[in-house]
Amino acid sequence: MTQTFAFSSLVPALPELFLTVAALALLMLGVFRKEDGCRQSTLLAIIAMAIALVLTSQLGGSVSYAFGGGEAGLFVMDGFGAFTKAMVLLGSAFTLGMSGTFLEREKIGRFEYPVLVLFATVGMMIMISANDFMSLYLGLELQSLSLYVLAAYHRDNLKATEAGVKYFVLGALASGMLLYGASLLYGFVGTTSFDGLAKVFGAEHAVRPSLGVIIGMVFVLAGLAFKISAVPFHMWAPDVYEGAPTPVTAFFAVAPKIAALALFTRVITGPFGDLAGEWRQVVIFLALASMFLGAFAAIGQTNIKRLMAYSSIGHVGFALVGIAANSVLGIQGLLIYLAIYLFMNTGVFAIILSMRQKGRLVEGIDDLAGLGKTHPAMAFVMMVLMFSMAGIPPLAGFWGKLYVFLAAVESGLMALAILGVLSSVVSAYYYLRIIKVMYFDEALEPFDRQTDRPMRLVMGLSALVVLVFTFIPGPLLVGAKAAAAVLFPAAAG
User: Fold this and answer.
1) CA distance 485 to 445
2) Residue extents of the structural domains in the chain
3) CA dist list (Å): 104 to 29, 38, 110, 211, 457
4) Distance (Å, rounded) from C-alpha 205 to C-alpha 292?
5) Residue 377 neighbours by CB under 8 Å, 6+ apart
6) Whole-model pTM above 0.90?
7) What are phi and psi of 272, to 5 degrees?
8) pLDDT digits (tens, 9 = 90+) for 116-165
9) Long-range contacts formed by 273-278: CB under 8 A, 24+ apart
C-alpha cells in the first residue's frame, strides 16, 4: 500500500527549510557575483534569521511532528523547541552582525562566512527538534562540519588553523562515541526513536535496563558532553576559543552552546526520562567538575578569550545543575540561565572585538588597564556584565544561578547546590579582577576611540537586559516555564 506525501507534513520544519533555501541562495549569489559581497551576504543572512525567528514563534504553540508518522516522526516542533531556537537565532544574528568589520579589517571578508553560519544554525535547529537518533546525528554533523571550517576560517593564521584541526579531530572522536552509543541502544532495544525508547524504558512492568543499554546511554551522554564542553570533555575549548577568529569564538560561546544544552535536555528528559537513577550521577559529576574546573582554571589566565573559554565551561556546569534536578522548575531555571547567558556573552565579546590599539586587535586582560578613564561607557558595560557573570545581586546573572540552585534543592540535591554556590564564589575572583584592572590600573596604551555601531548596539542591549531583568522578569519566567512544561506533560497535567 503506497502512502501519499503531503507538503503540509513539512510545516513544523518550515523555519529550517527556509533557512536552508536562504543559505543555498546566498551561496549561489556569492559564487556568481564578480565582486566579493560579504557585507551584503551578512545583511541578507541576518534578515533570513529574523524571518526564521518569526516562523518559529508562530509554530511553537502546539506539538507537531514531521518526517514520519505521528510521534514516530524524526522531527518534533513544540514550545521547548521554539524557545531554544529563538535564543539560537538571536545568538547567531548578534554574532554575525558583530563580525563584519573584523572580517574586513583582517581582509578575510568573504561571502562563505555568513553561509557557513547559516548552515551551522540550521544544524542547531535540527538538533533541538530531533526526535530520533538519526535526525539528532544529522543536525549535529551539519552544525559540526560548519563549525570546523569556521574555526580555521582565517586560513593564513597559524593559531586559527591549529584550532580548526584540534576541533575537527576531537569533534570526530566525540561524534564517533555518540554514534556508537546510539548503535548500542538500537541493538539492545530495537529502535532509535525517542518516543519508542521512552515507551520501552517507561513501560509499567519495565525491568531494570541491561548493561548494554546503560553503556550505550553513557556513550551518548559523553558525546553530547563534548559538544557543551563539559569536564572532562572540555579540552578543546580553551585552545579553540583562543585560536579561532574572535567573531567565531563569540559564535561558539553562544549559539552552539545553547543548542547543545537544549539537545542534551531533550535526550535526558525524552528517551532517558525514566532512567533518572542511571544518568543522574553522571550529570551531577559533569556539573560539579565543570563548575570547579571553570572556577579554578580561569584564575591564572592572561588572555581574555581563553578566560572566557573557562568561564563558559563553568557556566555549563551551572546549567547542568538545572538538568540534574529533572523537573519543570529545573528546566525552567536552565532556560532562564541560557537566555541571560546569551546576552552576557554577546556583550562581553562585543567589548573584546572593540579592544583595538592603533588598529591592532589585542586580547590580553592587562590591555584593559585604565579603561574606566579612557572609555568610561565601555568600562561601565563590562563592569555590569562581569558583576552579572559573577552572580552579584540584583543583576540578571544572580537570578539565573538562583533558579537552578532552587530547583536542585527542591529535587533533594542540596549538596550539589551548596557546592555550586562555593564554586560561584571562587569564580567571582577573576571577574572582579577584570573590574579592578579597568578602574584601578594605569592605562599603558588606550584603545582606539572609534567603536563600530553594531558593537555599541550589542553592548547597550546586553547591559540593558542584565540591568532590567530584575524589575521585569515576568515575560522570561512565564515563557521559560511554558517551554519546560512541554517536556514534563505528566507534571503539567
Assistant:
1) 52
2) 278-493
3) 19, 9, 9, 54, 19
4) 40
5) none
6) yes
7) -105, 15
8) 999 999 999 999 998 889 999 999 999 999 999 998 888 888 888 888 88
9) 273/198, 273/201, 273/202, 274/198, 274/201, 274/202, 274/206, 275/201, 275/209, 275/217, 276/326, 278/209, 278/214, 278/217
